[in-house]
């Protein structure tokens, strides 16, 4: 008899994302149940077998699913959720025909957010990010990657990563930080990109590693930003400090970022709107995950990544929000799934795997999160839908009613209307809650 301190029953479906545990590629168990102990799953199966195989310890919590669909907590493998300032003016400019690159060349884009983020303290960044993470949690994201890259000085990059660490301590979403100091060339290094790469490699990375502030290293490998040669240098240097590569590749032009990801055996290559299919095939052979970000194409009005051609290579495809103030101001992975199905022609099964198990693979966390099987964290969502397919079919609403992280309820149903924040919350999500204060001394 298996002992459990948490038992969840009365589920219309339990979507395990483990084919061996149920029906189809998602391992769906009709009338399923799940049990956990100490925050980890100890049993999944049909509810009809529960009483014979699982025993509740004294004081165990029992949750009645009330006919909901149970599924793994979502894993968002690519975000820029820590920032100050807002860029809604650029949104209007794009509506009038300005391109992302034209806005950046005029002093907007990433550098606009850099100015605001440099002027904010660590605590300011934490305060601005907390309601954003409350929003992603309410919509089902239980594990999130967050990048630096809006500081572009050693002190400001460390400040952003310190904010990520503090966020991990203050709220239940599991935060995994990425050092992305090579996100853009700062104004003070204009025309001297190699010199800035020197700073990233020789000063920033050692400082990040000394403080153990990051798990991954990222670089914006893109025309007009960092070449494949420069990207390789940053990623190799990161690897020397134990930081695994997951980076922006082939977003606006075909630069060879996907091929570089395969050569370096990166965890993931992200965006890939302009990646060559043959390079994606090399990624598949190297075990690299293709992380596609349809919210960015949607927000910028760009053609979507050719997901079906990529999938035909056999590559593993993750989906992420790319939540950021300039090119994807939306953290809802349920909507990302809808975009993937309707615009990139992924199947509903492929889309759901993209925000669960394959998202975990893009972060090297597939042994911990992303599916529901014994031994993994009990990160569980309850969704108020007749069946799992409605998650991406019925769009524009939040289907998630309850969220468990490591076996604890962290977002109860009816606690607040998380899918429609009030005006104050909306300002916090966009980073406009209050004026940004004068700069403070850098963190030690």
Question: TL;DR of this structure?
Answer:
The chain has helices spanning 50-53, 88-95, 100-105, 110-118, 122-138, 154-170, 193-210, 228-240, 257-264, 277-286, 294-300, 307-312, 333-344, 348-354, 357-361, 390-393, 423-430, and strands spanning 2-15, 28-30, 32-37, 40-46, 54-72, 74-76, 141-147, 174-182, 216-221, 244-249, 268-271, 289-292, 317-319, 380-383, 400-405, 408-411. The chain is of the alpha/beta class.
Biggest β-sheet: count, sense, barrel? 8 strands, mixed
What is the beta-strand fraction?
15-25%
Total beta strands = 16
Q: What is the domain tally?
A: 2
Shape: globular
By CATH reckoning, the class of the largest domain would read: Alpha Beta
Please identify the structural class as seen in this structure.
alpha/beta
Name given to the CATH homologous superfamily of the largest domain: Metal-dependent hydrolases
| Nearest-integer average pLDDT | 92
Provide a count of the helices: 17
CATH topology descriptor of the largest domain: TIM Barrel
- Compute the CA-based radius of gyration: 21 Å
CATH architecture title of the largest domain = Alpha-Beta Barrel
Helix content: 25-40%
Low-confidence blocks of residues? 413-444
- The span between the termini is 52 Å
Please name the defining characteristics of this protein.
Urease, subunit C, domain 1, 444 residues, 24% strand, alpha/beta, disordered C terminus
């Amino acid at each position: 008899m298996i002992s459990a301190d948490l038992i969840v029953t009365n589920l219309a479906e339990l979507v395990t994302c483990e084919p061996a545990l149920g029906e189809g590629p998602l391992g769906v168990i009709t009338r399923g149940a799940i049990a956990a102990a100490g925050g980890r799953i100890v049993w999944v199966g049909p509810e009809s077998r529960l009483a014979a195989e699982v025993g509740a310890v004294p004081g165990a919590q029992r949750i009645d699913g009330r006919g909901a669909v149970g599924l793994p907590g979502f894993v968002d493998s690519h975000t820029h959720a820590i920032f100050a300032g807002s860029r809604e003016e650029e949104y209007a400019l794009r509506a009038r025909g300005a391109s992302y690159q034209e806005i950046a060349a005029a002093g907007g884009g990433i550098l606009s957010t850099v100015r605001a983020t440099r002027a904010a303290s660590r605590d300011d960044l934490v305060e601005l990010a907390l309601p954003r993470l409350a929003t992603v949690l309410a919509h089902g994201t239980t594990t999130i990657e967050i990048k630096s890259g809006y500081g572009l000085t050693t002190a400001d990059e460390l400040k952003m990563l310190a904010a990520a660490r503090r966020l991990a301590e203050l709220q239940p979403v599991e935060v995994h930080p990425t050092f992305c100091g090579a996100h853009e060339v700062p104004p003070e290094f204009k025309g001297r990109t190699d010199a800035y790469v020197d700073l990233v490699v020789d000063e920033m990375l050692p400082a990040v590693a000394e403080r153990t502030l990051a798990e991954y290293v990222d670089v914006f490998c893109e025309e007009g930003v960092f070449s494949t040669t420069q990207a390789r240098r940053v990623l190799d240097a990161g690897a020397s400090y134990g930081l695994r590569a997951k980076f922006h590749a082939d977003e606006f032009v075909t630069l060879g970022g996907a091929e570089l990801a395969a050569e370096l055996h990166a965890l993931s290559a992200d965006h890939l709107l302009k990646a060559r299919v043959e390079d994606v095939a090399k990624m598949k052979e190297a075990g690299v995950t293709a992380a596609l970000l349809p919210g960015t194409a949607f927000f910028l009005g760009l053609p979507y990544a050719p997901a079906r051609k990529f999938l035909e290579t056999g590559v593993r495809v993750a989906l992420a929000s790319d939540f950021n103030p300039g090119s994807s101001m939306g953290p809802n992975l349920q909507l990302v799934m809808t975009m993937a199905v309707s615009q990139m022609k992924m199947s509903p099964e492929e889309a759901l795997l993209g925000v669960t198990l394959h998202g975990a693979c893009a972060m090297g966390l597939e042994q911990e999160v992303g599916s529901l099987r014994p031994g993994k964290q009990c990160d569980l969502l309850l969704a108020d839908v007749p069946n799992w397919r409605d998650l991406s079919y019925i769009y524009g609403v939040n289907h998630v009613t309850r969220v468990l992280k490591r076996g604890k309820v962290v977002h109860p149903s009816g606690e607040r209307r998380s899918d429609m924040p009030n005006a104050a919350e909306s300002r916090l999500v966009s980073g406009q809650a209050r004026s940004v204060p004068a700069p403070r001394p850098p963190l030690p």
